[in-house]
Each structure stands twice: as structure tokens, then as C-alpha cells.
């Protein structure tokens, strides 16, 4: 059975080639955007044969999808402050710092552009987002156990409510959120959650 490009998780030399190619792809996306991502250029930067890149990934969207899968495998530390509001604030500040990094902000725009024209890449982006939300969901679950939020509150919905306005603002207005904006996002999500907005039946 033929293997879809970019879906194999190899070891040894092949793993090193994959890592080099994905690093190069990430660099190009951050520097030049998705529209100027070229497999031959990525191969040159990664110092591997372009035939290898074409054979393994097949297309620029296949390469971006694999890069997103790789990102999903890199866990991010979650801060535990002891309160739901404190944890949501920590999440918001992490998102704010990420978006304030020119490289990360450019990378976000590039992968969204790639996802807009390819369903497999869109699925990989959704998976990455789901992984990040799942990493922070325990802060809401712990708050539920402490009685800080109403029973039945959806932890994932609360976590998404923190990051969504910050990312949406960057993509629609081009304005990078500052620390006060991050704190407002955390407070708004917490206030809504405490009021039962995210309780599911």
C-alpha cells in the first residue's frame, strides 16, 4: 500500500533528514510566508537532495501538514498558579508573548494560509490547536475540583475562550496584543465561566 507523503515517523538518518527539512520549512514560512514556500529552496537550506523532499512530502501543503504534526509533538509547559484565574492569565500571557514574537506571528499567518487551501493541512492545524487546548484544560478541571467554577463547565471551551480573541485580533487587525489585552482576555473567560456560560448539559 502506498504511503502518503509526510506521514511516516522514521528513525535514524531519515529522522535527521526530516528534522532538517522541517526546520528549513519553518524558517522559510517565518521569513517569506506560505506563498513563497518552495520545496527546492527548502531542500537547499536543509542540505538534502530535492528528490528526497519531493518524494517524501510531495507538495508544499504536505510539508506544512507534517510541520504542524511535528509542532503538536512538542509539549509546552503549563503553569500551575493554584487558581483558575491565575492559570488562565498565565495561558493568556503565553499566547501574548508568542504573538509578540515576530517569527511566531509570521509563522501563524503562514500556516493559516496553507490550511486555507488544503484540507489535510487544515486538519493538522486543528489537531495542533486541540493539543494546545488539551495541555491547558487541566487548569480548569482543577478549578472545578476546587469549586471555583460551576459543575458541568467545559474545560476546553474555557481555554479556547482565552486565546481566541488574541489570535483573532492579530489576524483581522494586524495588531499584536499587549499584556493588558491578555489580562482582559483571561478575566473575560473566567468571568463568563464563573457565570455558567460554558456549562454543558
TrEMBL record:
Molecular function terms from GO: DNA-binding transcription factor activity; transcription cis-regulatory region binding
Coiled coil: none
Keyword annotations: DNA-binding, Transcription, Transcription regulation
DNA-binding region: 38-57
Domain HTH tetR-type: 15-75
Protein name: TetR family transcriptional regulator
Species name: Streptomyces cadmiisoli
Organism classification: Bacteria, Bacillati, Actinomycetota, Actinomycetes, Kitasatosporales
